[in-house]
């Protein structure tokens, strides 16, 4: 893999070769001379031809995406956003997505959870999809309703976040009829460890890795690394590189090798068989693949699910539909050669192992039917919030909220930590600018560290206080170094600690929204918004020196 960076150290181009052939992907950024916003991605080119173009609104939110197919045909996808609570304000939440003559509308609760997803045909008004979701006070999904097909799924949990049962209802003559129940039984020792699912026993080794699971026999190596899996008489074997990334799998006598760019698969090749090449945008989202010399393009949902595949003419050849947890409910195929089964990227863009029904998420395997990871997460996550151990379920998928969250690596909290760091830096910077302060490298470093800590700990009281202390002490030291007297430095430090505890940690504790559109802008929008809130709080408690001081105030009231 050859990577070229531009003068701003952004990835401008990637080029790879596997057995002498490959693709060149170029990323086009905004140019002031074209009245574009620098830093935003305006297009993607593959082998010199533009495949994707983006257009943005004044806030830098994507309002239109244009897909350009090799035939020259274009498809436009447009986005609108949910208005803010006050008149004249807006949010980063996607309100509608319009494409192919259909509009999909999203409704949210006060915490940003999706309540409804409704798709209708624009010319007839016919509703083709209508999903409704209900959550607990801890944001766990407890009800998933398909209003169009008359299907409802309910979920019940114990206090530790373990699923206890899943009931399936079908609407018949206006009445919901129970059609099935999934039951879960857990260990009396390790209470998060599933010992049976629907009466099928599961056994484990000492590290919490399953040895017998849903009719499969498994072996493990290097701790939590799956080595072999035998299902229905077929043996699958897995090989990983030194970083723990899967580079080969053997299913029966079929050997498939994976060629990687970081944790992204750029190509997979079967020994003596076919090869697939995968293409990604600048943010690492898959948008196309090549198979048998032809290019195909992914259709994705707001949450990042692969919901369809179109050919180089722009004609749809595959449709997928999933439940909230990623189980494939529909897989229709018009390709004529089983492309829906050949394509491995599915729910959330995860890699789906057709032979096992499991998703490979880098460090672990996830079972969408059971709705849990096969084996336990690294036990180190328990120390991130020591006074709230009940929140640390090492087997749970996405904190029981698969509608809103995603977990590309099987180590979910790390992503939240990064988001917390970025948000805190943005908050600190904008608050300083609004209040007329200077914001140096030291200030941003302190903000990043405090945000990282708070983002990885789900906003617990203990870590909130730690984060506030770190920010406050950092600001005090920085103020003293900048020439402030002790009283002014302590005041600034106190206000920084207060704002960190009240506002920054609340945002940093959020999980990253799964929407690619929201993900592209959420750091900036939430950072600016929270920065202005922080600035307002600080500005309303002005520091006043003694009357003998003629120094200019650092904080001003309106």
UniProtKB/TrEMBL annotation:
Q: Which Pfam families does this UniProt record tie to the protein? A: TEN_YD-shell (PF25023)
The answer on whether this UniProt entry bears the keyword Zinc-finger reads no
* Keyword match Repeat: yes
User: Which residue numbers delimit the Teneurin-like YD-shell domain?
Assistant: 108-403
Transmembrane stretches, by residue range?
A: 461-481, 493-512, 524-543
Which key words tag this protein in UniProt?
Answer: Membrane, Repeat, Transmembrane, Transmembrane helix
- InterPro entries, sorted: Rhs_assc_core, T6SS_VgrG/RHS, TEN-like_YD-shell, YD
Q: Which NCBIfam families match?
A: Rhs_assc_core, YD_repeat_2x
* Name this protein carries in UniProt: RHS repeat-associated core domain protein
